[in-house]
Each structure stands twice: as structure tokens, then as C-alpha cells.
Amino acid sequence: MMPACLSDDWTFCPEREDISAEFTRLLAAAQEGGATIAECLMIARQLKRGDDRSWHREWKKLAQTNRQRAETAFAEGHRASAQRNWLRAMNYYGAAAMPLDPADERRWVAVLAMQECARSYLAARNPAGEVVTIPWLDGHSLQGYFLPAPSGKEPAPTVICIGEPGHRKEEFLFKLVPHARERGFSMLALDLFGDQRDDFLEALLRRQDLESAIPGVMDYLETRQDVDFARVGIIADGWGSSFVARAVLQEPRLAAAVCDGGLWDLHERAFFASRFAMSDVSIVPVPHAPLMASSADCPVLITLGEDGWLKADRARQLVRNSRLGSSDVTLKVFTAAETGAAQAHADNPSLANEYIFDWLESRLHGAGRI
Fold this sequence. Notes:
The protein has about 375 residues and is α/β, with parallel strands linked by helices.
């Protein structure tokens, strides 16, 4: 019997793009331990079409089941199973919160439960992770999870992972941490929310200086004895702005960056130029100079899917026409034939992340950085 919210071509809730995208994300998370396919399909059968309360209720119930399983496993000394179940519970709480209004108290309750599971997971690791606070704006600090490299003793190359405004850092714990750990990296997972509720997003989106967060993060990492500060890279997870690309211009201490390379800013500039028939695009206002049109020395990797919002040919043209300063800009386009072709590689993030971390490994473990 077809699950209630699945169409004949297995598109989930075709009338709700947000719900469909979230279900795709949950299925993809199963590859990295953030969900199980069987549990996702079970919930799909129980959901009522068009009922957001049903979505919240069923994912929250599943999150609570996994959380209880984690606590039982931990009490019995089974730390590996406890970590796996805390990761799934964390992700399911995030799914439960997704369709709710930012002002809905149930959303905040789900976010707090998600963060509690993340802290339990960090404490159960070996070496243990920690919650860190990094000053940023007056009255507002960044909050992050620092996960030491497997050795846990000697200074290790470190990767900063940060999402676009509105993205919470907990997803990185199953999506990116395994790739970092396998390559001997430490990781600092961050978001821009700090300890604020989701309605703080509106204030973030009004700011024109989000990139100012990154120098403070670098200052913090420079104080840590377990970080090899000559080998720090950054990953901007997801697309929507170029704030990390702009930060690379201001932060010469970065050894490698995975971001949009300023494509969003360049695309915006070209759009306005064509819309208003401007022959001189240099007069078109953009928040900051695009990375690829500047003299940044940091190696940059840009990845995108050919089915994403920015078409591959357009991206190639922008990169080709904008390599004025940096000689080390790599563009990787994932095709539909290999998967990973959706926006932000949502259809197969594992494949994209393998490529991304292999690229980082070649830069951060390279002879020139040791």
C-alpha cells in the first residue's frame, strides 16, 4: 500500500515543496546515520495529508523513541548505540520543528530537545566534544560544537562548518563529522543563531556584515592548543548568500575554503546589469567585492548540482570570467547521472561531502601546509 503522502512516482507531498524537501533530506540523512529509511517510511504512512500537526506529532514521537533508546543504551554501557540514537533523535526533533511558525512555542521546545540530544552525543564521544561560545555582536555570541580529531592530543587540522542564516548546526554532527573524523580533522560546527530562537532570523537577514563572524571564530581557534592553526579550512554548507566567500577576503589565516566563491554576488550583479541595461557592470551595487574578482590567496572549492538554482553553464561562465586574482578556484558540477545534482546536493549529500573532504584533505594535509 502506498504511504499516504507519497504519490505514484514516490514524490512526497507534491503539493508542499517544503515538506517534500524535508522528507528528501531525512532520507538522504540515513546514509550518514541521521535517520533510518524504515523509520522514515513508517512515518510517511502515518502522516495525514495537509496536516502540519500530524507531521510535528509523528516526528516528535519518533524522536522521543530514539532518545529513550539512546539513554537506555548509554546506561547499559553501549556508547556507540547511544551516539547513533542520539543523532537520529536530534534529526527527528529538527524535522518536527520544521513546518511550525518561528513564534510557535512547540518549535522552540523541539529545538531545545534537539540541542539536548546533541550535547549528550558530544559527551558520549571519545574524545568528547564540547559546546563553545564565541563573541560576535554586542549582546549576541555564536555557539558551536567543537569535536576534537580522533587523536585528541596533538594539534590537528581543523574545519569550520557553518550554514546560511536560518540553518542550525546540529545537522553537521551526522552530515559532516564522520568525514572529518575519518581524515583526522577536528571540526567546529557553528550557526549564526547562538542561543536565540528561530525568530532571530529576521534580525540576521537585515545585517549586511554576516562575514564579520568569521574573524572572531579564527581568533578563538588560534587560542586552542589542539588546533593546528596553519591548517584551518571552512565549509559554507548550503547556498543563499556569499557571506563566507566575503569572509575569505577579510581572513588571510584560512588555508582552504568551500563556499559559493561569490557566485551569488556575481549573479546578482549580472541580473541588475541586464535588467537595467547597464553596459558597465562595475557600477552595479553589491554588498562586497566578489571573491573571484579579488586577490584572495586561499584555495577555493565551489560545488553545485546541475539541477540547482544556478545552471552549470552559467556558473562556469561566471567562474571563467571572474578569475582575476585567485589562481586556485575549483568548480565541481555534480550531474544527474552521478546524483548530487539537486540544489545543495540534497539528493545525495554523501557523494558531495566525500568530494569536498577529499579536496580539503589534499589542501590541509598537503606537504605545503605541514
